[in-house]
Amino acid sequence: MRFTNPILPGFHPDPSICRVGEDYYLVTSSFEWFPGVPIFHSKDLVHWRQIGHVLDRASQLPLDGVRPSGGIYAPTLRHHNGLFYMITTLIDGLMESGNFIVTATDPAGPWSEPYWLPETEGFDPSLFFDDDGRAWVHGTRPARQQQYEGHTEIWLRELDLDGVKLVGEEHVLWDGAVKGAVWAEGPHIYKVDGRYHLLVSEGGTAHDHAISVARADHVTGPYTGSSRNPILTHRNLGRDHPIVGTGHGDLVQTPAGDWWMVLLAMRPYGGYHYNLGRETFLTRVHWEDGWPVAEPVRPEGEAPDLPACRWPAPPACDNFDTLRLLPQWNHLRTPREPYWTLTERPGFLRLRGRPESITERANPTLIARRQEHVHFAVHTAMEFVPEGRERAGLALVQNDDFHILLVMTASGLTVIRRENGVDHTLVQADVAPGRLWLGVEAHGQEYQMLYGIRPGEWRKLGEPVDGRVLSTTMAGGFIGAYIGVYLSGEGDPTGNVADFDWFEYLPLPEH
């Protein structure tokens, strides 16, 4: 059997994986989106299904006021003595910040409230459970003796599992393999053939990303780097390679003894642009002379030697006939009030208007899902009668300063492209309020806005919109594009509602 990369398309960065028997579980970063830390299940490392989120309660994840690309960084998932552990960092939280651990007996949840680790600093924490029963936390922080900007180091301390707190002496393990390497980060420790192997990413998370390895006879070091470092990078392949920025990997071993790596990488298109963000890829690893050797990350390859397990494909159309939102839907920052309902008008997703806008660092009335394909189409049916400054419809979001709106306003159906914090109204159509069909059809960086006033009669609204505004190349940060349904009073209080009958997301052929 062959498989296709990425194994998790769209914004799924910083993957971490663990195996329990014949089951594999994987988590990724979620930054300012809620719920946090999506968790996936697989039996063959190729086919994955989302089973929920680790951080699905406001008490676990206070994202209030978090900046774009702040929030949850680089979770690590591990299993020990019947308990799942997830450790991560909340960056720039106004209520809480720092490293914390949550636990669960079932990876689908519920997960515990956070155990904060106030004695730690930095980001990208990881866990290692040694075969002597001791547990260790290791992570990334600015180097104590800074030699250049971006100089970081990997630290390690023992974890008291009963009290869920750090104890004992601190150890500095590593600061990267390449001379002058920036952002040595994302560390993971593995014990293989009696030696401790430290896997570290370096070079930054863009084109120069790379993975290096060091090893030691004791978990506390000293660690010696491989002479073949970096063991994986695509920076030598040029910016026009179809897969770039390979890094932030985590290793897993199958029951048969084969090794694989999950990692992030990017697929540029429309020039050097990344609308999809950093995605999760899979590549084979073998061992030579006691060191791991990772194969280059390819668009497709021979699948792991495991029985194929294909999960039922989720429907392309969400008819909003469930009691809760499906797991692919996210909110921008932590929702503190229920601004949506699936039960007030059965068969519809009803959004309640509020003053907040996606131009603010707030929690607007927005429910969105990841863009997962270069070529895709989205359609929905909306019922909405605007008042005053209100707007409702579709939102394609990179962050508060970069997004595209297809919204019904008092002035008619409007397309707005926001770049560098400035709104540009591209086109308006005199369309009567009420029931309206909205759509977006994307072919590469051309995002064509669509609408209909009767079922099945789609019309183009203006020329295709330049989608590069949704790319991190223009917008900065670490996030991939989202698309969803939106309602805002644009600063004015409102009690209005917008009802969405269904929402469809379809991948489109390349040609």
From TrEMBL:
Cited InterPro entries: ConA-like_dom_sf (IPR013320), GH43_C2 (IPR041542), Glyco_hydro_43 (IPR006710), Glyco_hydro_beta-prop_sf (IPR023296), Glycosyl_Hydrlase_43 (IPR051795)
User: Where do transmembrane segments lie in this chain?
Assistant: none
Biological process per Gene Ontology, one example term: carbohydrate metabolic process
Q: Could you tell me which residue ranges the Beta-xylosidase C-terminal Concanavalin A-like domain spans?
A: 317-505
The site annotation (Important for catalytic activity, responsible for pKa modulation of the active site Glu and correct orientation of both the proton donor and substrate) covers 124
Q: Which UniProt keywords apply?
A: Glycosidase, Hydrolase
Keyword Zinc annotated: no
Q: Active site at which residues?
A: 14, 185
Which is one GO molecular function term here? hydrolase activity, hydrolyzing O-glycosyl compounds
Domain of life of the organism encoding this protein: Bacteria
> What family is reported?
Belongs to the glycosyl hydrolase 43 family.
Which PANTHER family did the record assign? BETA-XYLOSIDASE, BETA-XYLOSIDASE-RELATED
Please identify the protein, giving its name as recorded: Glycoside hydrolase 43 family protein
